[in-house]
Design goal:
This protein is an alpha/beta fold and 185 residues long. It has a single domain, classed as 3-Layer(aba) Sandwich (Rossmann fold). The protein contains 6 helices and 6 strands, in the order βαβαβααβαββα. Strands 1, 2, 3, 4, 5 and 6 form a 6-stranded parallel β-sheet that branches. Pfam families: FMN_red.
């Protein structure tokens, strides 16, 4: 399957981006083709209803990756109980044709204990785009974030955090596979 992961932070050392890289690692280990778009390294133009960005290379690549995806992962830091501005901007550029009947996993990282508000917001956006929300999500916060610092190897992720992330990623990949199979029948 083709999996597209959107790392929606505007910070070079974001734990949500590092978590996205780990999810990519796990999906590749399962034999999937994975495209990771890091919005810090690949910024998109500000959305405008006039859509004057035709031909913008990064934007066209972003849209194409979502169209080709069988499953989508949306990762964000939680800022003031919401998703990041760069992720919201990116999602404003796409429509239902990019998400329709595709499995979507919501992932968030918070400085506090959990990041539930941003995950709820992401799932609402996914519903409006006609995506299928994975019934599980990943929320890391507090000390759990230490496992996803850039200086921590994947092999050194805290075992409890690793087990939870692996379980949720397996669940997401299973849902994506079921939805993909139902479309191709």
């Amino acid at each position: 399957m083709n999996i597209t992961i959107i790392a929606g932070s505007n910070h070079s050392a974001a734990t949500s981006t590092r978590l996205s890289e780990y999810i990519k690692h796990l999906a590749v280990q399962e034999g999937h083709n994975v495209t990771l778009i890091d919005l810090y390294r690949t910024p998109l133009p500000f959305y405008s209803p006039e859509d004057t960005h035709g031909g913008h290379q990064a934007l066209e690549g972003f849209k194409h990756a979502l169209l080709e995806a069988d499953g989508i992962v949306l990762a964000t830091p939680e800022y003031h109980s919401g998703i990041s501005g760069v992720l919201k901007n990116a999602l404003d550029h796409v429509g239902q044709d990019h998400f329709n009947n595709k499995a979507v996993l919501s992932v968030s990282s918070a400085g506090g204990a959990v990041a539930v508000s941003s995950l709820t917001q992401l799932q609402t956006i996914v519903r409006n785009l006609h995506g299928i929300n994975c019934p599980e999500w990943i929320s890391i916060g507090g000390d759990q974030r230490k496992s996803f610092r850039v200086d921590v190897a994947f092999a050194d992720i805290h075992p409890d955090v690793d087990l939870r992330v692996r379980r949720v990623v397996r669940s997401f990949l299973g849902l994506a596979q079921q939805l993909t199979a139902s479309v191709t029948k």
